[in-house]
Task: inverse folding
């Protein structure tokens, strides 16, 4: 708390379910003109909640860096982690413009590009680009774990090509991801429903031997992948 | 065909739907004592079909290397592609033991480890470790492609972390994967059904706010990932 009282800026880096509680402890100690930020992966009602307890003369400008690996904590950082990645800033309405500029500068100095979004835009985007892939990664491991002993052992032996790429992100921290899934449940479950419907459509094409339908779905996937490469996000 | 007549061993490397046709063209030219092999990703009825048209004194020992990238064709090879990977051999019943030993040696010299499996074991394992992940990768891109223009553009901008790992294998060759999905449709659709059921169970846990249920599923995924690392397949 003594450090928070000295700081020009405090960044809360804890699982999303714990951000509000930590902010409640820190905010009374922060000095006038200082900035509170956090890196929570889900915005939900966090913005209004923190704004409601914000002391006068302390600004709140949260930002979510779209970068990371399956490892968590300070030891998981490396110097190029944020290079060419996006930091999505989600300042509450009416947030101090100087404070926003300072947080933009903070992320730019780390090598990131910044973008300002609303809480809702942020959460719908993250449901698709991060939360759904993690849910699928955890689940494909779950499915492998539920196989017969014999088949599971074989899967673990011969996992190269495909499966192992899916399992890398399944090594991520359980508490962090439990909190994300719960905090973004509405957008995540909506995105998952669309994905399951698309999966069933592909399954139907395979079941019926619809060669053109299968090719069409694969080709659209390749187009998305090509655009990622063009956007330097692949 | 002149080359096939000279060869001690011919390896067919074409999409699985085209293997039988190519074998029918090559086999009449192959010399006594030579070996036919292929690298098809689905065995299905391929073994019995080729065995039925095999000339006397030509052996058939197919093998499927569990390695590769999203790129296809001779130019996509590199010197360490097969190092520490498995080549799954699926010789038909009664295949010549000397020919099996020769094909084992061929893959060992490429750096791979070999294992002999039945067609059915091979296809069920590959449905889980390779065919399902590819189906999911194509589909998550399809889901992204089906979003509103505005949201799709945002997803393509901010794709780091998770999504891009899933899309890498979606760049794979459409004809090759159409053939694989159709050739292994029964095992693949069965594995997909289990996966979708597990996905719905995770979604239920999230919907109900079942914190212990979410953690339990994530922890099991992490255990599978740890075993992969121990098996040097991560």
Result:
């Amino acid at each position: 708390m003594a450090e928070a009282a000295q700081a020009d800026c405090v960044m809360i880096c804890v699982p999303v379910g714990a951000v509000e509680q930590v902010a409640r402890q820190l905010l009374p100690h922060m000095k006038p003109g200082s900035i509170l930020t956090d890196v929570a992966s889900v915005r939900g009602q966090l913005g209004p909640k923190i704004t409601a307890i914000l002391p006068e003369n302390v600004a709140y400008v949260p930002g979510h860096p779209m970068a990371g690996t399956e490892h968590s904590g300070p030891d998981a950082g490396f110097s190029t982690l944020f290079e060419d990645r996006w930091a999505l800033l989600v300042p509450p309405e009416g947030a101090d413009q100087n404070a926003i500029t300072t947080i933009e500068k903070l992320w730019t100095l780390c090598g990131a590009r910044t973008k300002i979004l609303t809480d809702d835009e942020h959460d719908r985007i993250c449901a698709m680009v991060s939360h759904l892939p993690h849910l699928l990664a955890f689940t494909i491991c779950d499915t492998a774990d539920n196989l017969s002993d014999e088949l599971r052992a074989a899967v673990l032996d011969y996992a190269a090509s495909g499966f192992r790429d899916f399992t890398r992100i399944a090594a991520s921290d359980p508490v962090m991801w439990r909190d994300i899934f719960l905090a973004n449940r509405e957008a995540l479950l909506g995105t998952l429903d669309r994905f399951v419907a698309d999966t069933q459509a592909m399954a139907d094409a395979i079941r019926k031997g619809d060669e053109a339908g299968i090719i069409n779905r694969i080709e659209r996937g390749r187009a998305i992948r090509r655009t990622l490469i063009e956007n330097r996000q692949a």
Notes: The mean pLDDT of chain A is 90. Chain A has two domains: 2-117, 122-230. Strands of chain A lie at 9-12, 35-38, 59-60, 63-65, 86-89, 113-116.
